[in-house]
Write a structure and sequence with these properties.
Elements lengths: L24 H14 L2 H9 L6 H16 L7 H26 L2 H4 L2 H11 L1 H9 L32 H23 L2 H4 L5 H34 L2 H15 L7 H22 L3 H21 L2
Helix pairs in contact: 1-3, 1-4, 3-4, 4-7, 4-10, 7-10, 8-13, 10-11, 10-13, 11-12, 12-13
Length: 305
């Protein structure tokens, strides 16, 4: 566990400077239980069974996560484990608010898909604000939260290419991931039947705005906050795996959707989290994420499917 005083954050020594010395098993189990509650797993299983759960179940899950946070002892050693779980409670409560608004505003059921995505994006400022509130009196600075440029040339710890510079790895990943996403969306959306290439001229500006906002709030909530907390409460492997799994399950109904979307999103999130930990900044993660959002929103706008 971390010492009572915050670890140094002005170096680029990576996870060695922030990893706890030992694991507190009860708080680790509570964190994973909270993550499963926050993951909408019950809604996914209900969807597979052919029924929709009532919206109040998300609020009940947020309350359960809050209770788990209260069960963590109020000690300096465990403050970040409590903060990790509280952030999950805030995200879940915010998600319930977003879902409730969508269900009570008839426009969402009839609006074009791209317009609904854009409007829903504005609603996600609610969970972002709630997560930000959990940082009050947390002793976490902007650098602790990785909200900095970071060392863009830092070596990567990704398997098979360990030691390569992120300044080389990130652009290569950008090309590979973008090509894969375009191919997947092209096939799934039957773009060859619906695509209107000239629509890119008007789709690109809103796609850029969508990407800037969406990548910012998702990186802040799913990675910056959860990694800042998790790396000080648990091992780096647990912190990265937890944030990646949560991100993947949150995209079960996204673009792409289903379990293939979950797997792709979780793997992508793992790469993004690794870049943040390695570089001690969110620049590469944000750029990789925003680029994929531009592709997704542009494809949805041009095909209207």
């Amino acid at each position: 566990m971390p010492s009572p005083s915050p670890p140094p954050t002005d170096t680029l020594s990576g996870e060695a400077a922030i990893a706890p010395q030992t694991s507190h098993i009860p708080s680790l189990l509570a964190a994973w239980a909270a993550l499963l509650l926050a993951s909408d797993l019950d809604s996914i299983l209900g969807n597979l069974a052919g029924f929709d759960l009532p919206s109040w179940t998300a609020l009940a899950r947020a309350a359960a996560i809050g209770i788990l946070a209260l069960a963590i002892p109020r000690t300096l050693r465990l403050r970040h484990a409590r903060g990790f779980i509280l952030a999950l409670a805030a995200m879940t409560a915010g998600g319930w608010a977003v879902q409730a608004i969508q269900q009570h505003v008839a426009w969402f059921s009839s609006a074009p898909r791209a317009a609904a995505m854009f409007a829903r994006l504005l609603l996600y400022l609610i969970p972002t604000a709630l997560v930000a509130l959990t940082l009050i009196r947390s002793d976490l600075s902007r650098r602790d939260l990785f909200l900095t440029r970071g060392d863009l040339r830092a070596p990567t710890a990704l398997p098979l290419i360990r030691g390569a510079r992120w300044s080389v790895v990130a652009p290569a990943l950008l090309l590979v991931v973008s090509a894969g996403l375009i191919t997947q969306l092209w096939i799934v959306s039957h773009a060859s039947r619906h695509l209107h290439p000239l629509a890119l001229l008007w789709a690109l500006p809103p796609a850029l705005l969508f990407a800037i906002v969406n990548a910012s709030w998702e990186e802040f909530c799913f990675r910056c906050v959860l990694l800042a907390r998790g790396l000080r409460a648990f091992s780096p492997a647990h912190a990265i795996a937890a944030s990646s799994l949560l991100f993947g399950l949150a995209h079960y109904g996204g673009h792409p959707s289903g379990f293939s979307g979950v797997a792709m999103s979780a793997f992508f999130a793992w790469i993004l989290a690794r870049s943040i930990v390695d570089t001690r900044g969110w620049t590469w993660a944000w750029l990789l994420h925003a680029t994929q959002d531009v592709i997704i929103f542009s494809m949805v706008s041009m095909t209207n499917v």
